[in-house]
Amino acid sequence: MSVQSPISSVNDFVVRFANVNGSGSASANELFARSILRHGVPVSPRNIFPSNIQGLPTWYEVRVTEAGHLGARGGVDMMVAMNPQTWDKDVASIEPGGYLFYDSTKPMPSSKFREDITVIGVPLTAITNSTYTDPRQRQLFKNIIYLGALCALLDMDPKLVEQLIGEQYKGKEKLLSSNVHALHLGRDWALQNLKCPIGLRVKKTDKVGDRIFLEGNSAAALGAVYGGATVCAWYPITPSSSVAEAFTSHCKKYRHDPETGKAKYAIVQGEDELASIGIVIGASWNGARAFTATSGPGISLMTEFIGLSYFAEIPAVIMNIQRAGPSTGMPTRTQQCDVIACAYASHGDTKHVLLFPEDPAEAFEFAAAAFDLAERLQTTIFLMLDLDIGMNHRLCRPLKWDDARQYDRGKVMTAEMLEEGRDFGRYLDVDGDGIPYRTYPGTHPTKGSYFTRGTSRDRYARYSEEGAVYADNMQRLVRKFETAQDMVPRPLQANAAKPTKYGVIYFGSTSPAMDEAIGILEARGHQLDRLRIRAFPFHSSVASFIADHDFVYVVEQNRDAQLRQLIVNENGIDPVRLVPILHYDGTPITARFIANAIGDHQDHLKVTPLRKAVS
Amino acid sequence: MTYIAKPKFHHPGLKKNELGYTHRDYEGKISTLCAGCGHDSITASIIEACYELSIEPHRVAKISGIGCSSKTPDYFLGNSHGFNSVHGRMPSVLTGANLANRDLIYLGVSGDGDSASIGFGQFAHSIRRGVNMTYIVENNGVYGLTKGQFSATADRGSKSKKGVTNTDNAIDLVAIALQLGATFVARSFSGDKTQLVPLIAAAIRHKGASFIDVISPCIAFNNHAGSTKSFDYVREHNDAVNRLDVLVGRDPISVDYAPGTVQVVEQHDGSRLALRKLDADYDPHDRLGAMTFLQKHAAKGQIVTGLLYVDPDAEDLHTHLDTVETPLNTLDEKALCPGSAVLDKINASLR
């Protein structure tokens, strides 16, 4: 094996922590990421965890990125190997020239190391055991001790870490001092016994700006609070549970009547997903803003009700935090694999509005907007997050709210309007936009009541199996969907520095990796215009973008090119013009992957065809 | 043909209730169920109960699932909003509606196929949550719309119209409701309007989860010899534990009955239930006793009817969630949105 010089990099590297689930490492690892942020250096952390509760492996990866690349990079520059179970795999994943940090209390055979990496041993267990007697303390403070050692190795300012610990344990002096003590134990040992700092370093800068650091699920839940949701019904499922938990937490803070202390919200943990969406539909039918949060298997269970929402035209908001399917799939791994399932959920001819936020800031904005859209369009709106955005902290622009903003309650006929003698037909297309008026139950003693049903009915909500009446209704639903095109967030286009015949379409959590990949591709000489789709139904600019390019790559995180299918299906595009770039192993897509896949394809375009070359 | 509306003309001298409404104001469209269907008798009892209580018809939300029973909300309270949802999922839709607006009266109508099979879970969970509703199961023990299959409430050993003997045990929804904590539990018979009307009225007045199982013979598929849900069978095996009068507000308690045979239950809204006891030992406040009484009589092949259990101090889901008195569907931006200043603070805490 050739001699490999250690990686030397300031503010641009990847550290991965390999831990045992339940060891209390999560808070220490997050503290590490936040500490780097406090140095003014952007970070992009990711939880990587199998579907288990305790005792099995878990990883936490922190990409330190002064350039601000928030997508996953791939590869590990420093492995903090705290899990013997995954040792071999962890050691193997270190980049040549990288670093291995491990607990050296017990000697390891040389065969367990690699020659092309730098091995850093700290006797963490020995230090911990000589300081603490309580087994739980030993377990928890070992994590803080390795954090202290990393501070010394990476040249981090311990005061910034202490400051964070201070914020975390504000008012709990005993916990604060004991954590700071553990931090210094690790740092001091490293400074006294190791060559510090190593080639990987954190240097103060000001590249974070006013950006905030939060999880997509929490942001979406906050969007629901700001968007006026009052009823939330949910059933626990990974990776969506934290949406409802965060909504509960936000509501407890911001949604109590100051005089009575009573709740201006109702949250019900349903007995299953069917009940959860049923509660949402019942509440929305009765004029409240309601939502549920779930994942793919939950969507499967909800589809019957989703069909009812579509056909009976009842608002509903579903936040789908996608994970790898089909079936139980990989519950704790990320994908964008529910695009088709949600776009056409339920039997018969159905189409649903999908929103694709790229980060927590958009998750907040789109979540709030989803309630306006649901009421305006009187249908189900899907907020399509995924585990990568939902369960990871991400840097994003600060959340904004316009206090002058008023909720769009849609077309609701009031008692006064009924009194004026306005013709009320529940399914009458009064304005030609496909959207009828509705009334809330209890509106008027003699006018405006109607019967809601999933069976066919006429414009006045009277049951009917007449073919023409049914077709009329179905055509109106198509008109309504067309109306939605101009109401949903439009695609965002960014053109290459030079004119190009090639484009790329992507959406959702692929966004940061794509931003980085474009730079890599440019460096390889490939120019691409890009279009980030933010909603379905597709705006007309999607078809125009495809028409303006010889062909377009469609990058997505699923096996079957679901977004591409949807574009082909809905816009009648020749599939040959859309080249699928697919990543679906459950890990977040990386810039390296995108750049390699598109770059290789583009390189082949430059090869002169043999027939042409010999003629 | 559920879209056939009733003619609007009526006798000018029709009696009016306190709000000036006549019976006709509580009616709906013409029923399309089979002539003689027990469900139509229940519809008539609902109309009668709402008329007697002087309910504003439009303040009722009537919600059902799918099936013969679930069609019936179209046939009463024509000025109310109705919701014919999906099979067995009425309880969740009703729960959501109730959360949105606590001021309306919620009437859930379901069937034995709807509630004891596909919707068994939703039935159970809406009861255990204490949703303020009147949940009526129109129980005929058979799937009428699909022509005669046994439902989950069909008694073991009973026979279908085709002569097949049911070998599965029956689910007793009343027993389950008692076990799950329903605060108003009753059983009645569609052919006993005298008993059923005040039970429905009392259930509507009750704040909490009210459940009424109404044996309602299916005239087309379950009214033959060998059925335990036929008119003849229920009449022969009915054991009523009490009769009920609902006294709202100012009406004095009836003293028509001999001392010791009337028990008055005062509810939180001021209404009083006067129970004329037929079974001297029956105590409708004893949940455990009701369960035992029910099982003992079931073992003897008797169908116990009447108000089986009531908790006058019942709470409902809104109480448990401690929600504001104002209906959630009327709260506006000012009440719901924390605003930009709060968001700025949230942003600051996320750095």
Question: Can you tag this structure with a few keywords?
Answer:
heterodimer; A: 615 residues; 7-stranded mixed sheet; 6-stranded mixed sheet; 23 strands; 19% strand; globular; B: alpha/beta
Distance between the termini of chain A: 47 Å
Strand content of chain A: 15-25%
Structural class of chain B: alpha/beta
Write the element-wise H/E pattern of chain B from the N-terminal end onward.
Answer: HEHEHEHHEEEHEHEHEEEEHEHHH
User: Quick one: overall form of chain B?
Assistant: globular
- Average pLDDT confidence of chain A is 95
Number of strands of chain B: 13
Helical content band of chain B: 25-40%
- Count of DSSP-assigned helices of chain A: 20
Order of adjacent strands in the largest pleated sheet of chain B: 2-1-3-4-8-7-13-9
Distance between the termini of chain B: 63 Å
Instruction: Round the Cα radius of gyration of chain B to an integer and report it.
Output: 21 Å
Characterise this structure.
The complex is a heterodimer of chains A (615) and B (351). With 615 residues, chain A is an alpha/beta fold. Chain A is 38% helix and 19% strand. Chain A has a seven-stranded mixed beta sheet, with helices on both faces. Chain A has a six-stranded mixed beta sheet with strand order 3-4-2-5-6-7. A five-stranded mixed beta sheet of chain A has the order 18-20-19-22-23, with helices on both faces. In chain A, a hairpin with an 8-residue loop joins strand 3 (43-48) and strand 4 (57-65). In chain A, helix 3 packs across helix 4 (135-153) and helix 16 crosses helix 19. Chain A is globular. With 351 residues, chain B is α/β, with parallel strands linked by helices. Helices cover 31% and strands 19% of the residues of chain B. Chain B has twelve helices and 13 strands. Chain B has helices at 38-53, 68-71, 90-100, 112-118, 120-129, 173-180, 193-205, 231-237, 287-299, 317-321, 333-336, 340-349, and strands spanning 60-64, 81-84, 105-111, 133-139, 142-143, 149-150, 184-189, 209-215, 238-240, 242-247, 262-266, 272-277, 303-310. In chain B, helix 1 (38-53) packs across helix 7 (193-205). Classes of the chains: A alpha/beta (615), B alpha/beta (351). The interface between A and B is large, with 76 and 64 residues.
